[in-house]
Amino acid sequence: MDEKELLIFQKGNNSTHTNFIPKLDIEIEKLENIIPRNLLRDDIPIPDVSEVEIVRHYIKLSRMNYGVDSGIYPLGSCTMKYNPKINEYVARLAEFSQIHPLQEENEGTLQLINAISVLLAEITGMDGFTLQPAAGAHGELVGLLIIKKYFEMKGVKKNKIIVPDSAHGTNPASAKMAGFSIIELQSNQNGEVPLDHLEFAMQQGDVAGIMLTNPNTLGVFDREILKITKIVHKHGGLCYYDGANLNPMLGICRPRDMGFDIVHLNLHKTFSTPHGGGGPGSGPVGVIKELIPFLPTPCIITTDEGLVCTQDRDHSIGRIKAFWGNFGIIVRAYVYILSLGAEGLKRVGQIAVLNANYLRIQLQKKYYLPYDRICKHEFVLTDKNLPNEVTTEDIAKRILDYGYYAPTIYFPLIVNGAMMVEPTETESKKSLDNFIEAMYKIYDEAFNEPDRLKSAPLNTPVGRLDAVNAARNPILKE
Known about the structure:
alpha/beta; Aspartate Aminotransferase, domain 2; three-stranded antiparallel sheet; Aspartate Aminotransferase, domain 1; 37% helix
């Protein structure tokens, strides 16, 4: 192929394109039997631009987005921490990234899976773990299916699950998918489970147990937690711990010590793995000894010949994910746990609580705090008492103009105008102070320049959308 055949320059619209004509070793008529003619290209137009233009283009696009590398990410209840680069380096090692679960030379991966299962068991107090669930909600479903199977094997019919109104929103949805009916308990004035209501609900006889998030979505730790699990167990129920909020508990207290039988963890929330945009994710589930027979298969067991994969578990709920789950995410969490060690993980819990309470006390000076008590990893403010009909949505939109991601808004549903803030353990005092300063400015604008808040965001690539119209008349494209 000579130069003329290789390059054909087309000029038009003041732009230059280089078209590459691929040389085919198969006749076009035969090729059409493999690929439809309308999908075949006669040429491939590629813009003829310089390297610096390409770099500037993609840097510009990256600046239009926001992520954990850009700044504080104060989303409450589902916060991204950060993604340590050592995690990424190890997960990309060819020995981890270029393997297949069915190849014979996978002893190292089995050792890693077994090792992190042991570590998670120590962190939570549980006796056995499965790493198959692909997300926290997936883990919830697995835990509930285990509860269901447990009572089926006992020949006891229990088809209801208690879910406090302060739980994560996926809890009742997961319970429904598992075939349970939901009993919702309303929180008391302290944001905790009322013991008398719990006792009454458990006396119905067909209640399989309780799903509890602790600390809950209000950011408060239920001080009656030992009494709660004791009541449930007294009536023959099981206690499920939603471990999505585990990071302030690390090294300080464990779900098993609180009386729980099952726990799921969100590796992206507690152990620094990537999350968002629909994936990837990982929601390992841990159980007490009595429930190990019901864990999903395949599972790893220790034999005289070393670690082996087995399907031999008669009472298992079965496979719930291909192979071992999202292995790359599991590797990242393993690296994070080993990097910090026991004392480091405890420090994570302490700083998570310290950061949240520092932010809570400072913002409480301006914004209304419905539950005025020490929080754990997150807390909830509201738009109550703000002038000029300024709303939570106005505040969330305006904070974007100051270069910050917005808090979680209008959740939990039990708080009107909620703004749920979680600074995480990764932010410095300077970072928190800058966020506080921006929130103070917005508070002053609510009094002096409310129209700016109601028109915000003003400096972002996309302005305020008509959310109601977008929801009712979505524009869907392939």
